Amino acid sequence: MYKSVALPYSYNSLQPILNEETINIHYNKHYLGYLEKLNNFLNSYNYDYRYTKSELVKHIDEVPINVRDDVLYNLGGVLNHELYFYSMGDKNINIPIGILRNKINEQFGNYDNFKKEFIKTANYLVGSGYTFLVVNKNGDLEIMNLPNQETPYLYDLIPIMALDLWEHAYYLVYRNRRSEYIDKFFEIIDFNNINKNYENALSKIPKK
């Protein structure tokens, strides 16, 4: 069975941006709920867990058609939540570091331009979904929205940062003020983890 990832901070570490109740419910009810359903659907046809979760997206055609949509939906829910939780932190590393900083400056001019573009894109999302920072096959960065629990892995893109825009991610604190939540997200970003994700993504791109 696929195992859960540990929450990398305590439930109250991201206050006041996100309160303890929000993180607790988000992790224990929503994320672990997706994981439980994913494993149940996979066990229903005796899946042998030969792939990592992200690899399974690439091999979704091997899943029996009668449970394929359910597996993909819950798989996306697991992957997206894991990336979201690890896109945030309580270490105040909310400015890009390492090679990711260099790449952001190269593509966007500076961090402020990147931040404005990400926020603008996030505010465009209609309904539930995520805003992702992804790495394409050329090693370049892209900012994109996807609805519900779609994952960028479906499109041969490697996600390295995620902002959850489902209402359960923010509603207990911000109610209908989603744009405020989007802005405040940048105060709790953990660019140490995101830079590691970028380095890992580059290592998976075939060299030309």
Question: Overview of this structure, please?
Answer:
The protein has 208 residues and is mainly α. The chain folds into 2 domains: 20-86, Fe,Mn superoxide dismutase (SOD) domain (Helix Hairpins, Orthogonal Bundle), CATH 1.10.287.990; 98-203, Iron/manganese superoxide dismutase, C-terminal domain (minor pseudopilin epsh fold). The chain is 49% helix and 10% strand. It contains 8 helices and 3 strands; from the N terminus they run H-H-H-H-H-E-E-E-H-H-H. It has helices spanning 20-43, 53-58, 65-86, 98-108, 111-124, 171-174, 178-185, 191-203, and strands at 129-135, 141-147, 158-164. Strands 2-1-3 form a 3-stranded antiparallel beta sheet. Strand 1 and strand 2 form a beta hairpin. Helix 1 runs antiparallel to helix 3 and helix 4 crosses helix 8 (191-203). The radius of gyration is 17 Å and the shape is globular.
CATH superfamily of the largest domain: Iron/manganese superoxide dismutase, C-terminal domain
| Poorly predicted tracts of residues | none
Cα radius of gyration in angstroms: 17 Å
How much of the residues is beta strand, in percent?
Answer: 5-15%
Largest sheet: 3 strands, antiparallel
Q: Short summary of the structure?
A:
The chain is mostly helical. It has helices at 20-43, 53-58, 65-86, 98-108, 111-124, 171-174, 178-185, 191-203, and strands at 129-135, 141-147, 158-164.
